[in-house]
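hey
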């Protein structure tokens, strides 16, 4: 990663090592993905990214990052 900035890198990256994500890996319809559980909709999650090697999975609008899916 390249960052061209006049700001010192300590300022840019400050706090990055303390960020906590509540992500889980799951498989839905044979597609492995990283999902963020939604506290306002128990049993559902928002897709963060796909971990599947199949190109067709990335073209499926149902698996687009940001989509809400059922985790059960």
């Amino acid at each position: 990663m390249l960052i061209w900035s006049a700001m010192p890198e300590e300022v840019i990256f400050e706090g990055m090592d303390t960020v906590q994500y509540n992500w889980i890996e799951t498989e839905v319809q044979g597609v492995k993905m990283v999902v963020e559980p939604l506290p306002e909709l128990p049993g559902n999650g928002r897709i963060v990214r796909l971990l599947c090697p199949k190109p067709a999975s990335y073209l499926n609008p149902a698996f687009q990052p940001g989509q809400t899916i059922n985790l059960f």
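Residues 19-70 form one domain. The first strand starts at residue 24 and ends at 28.
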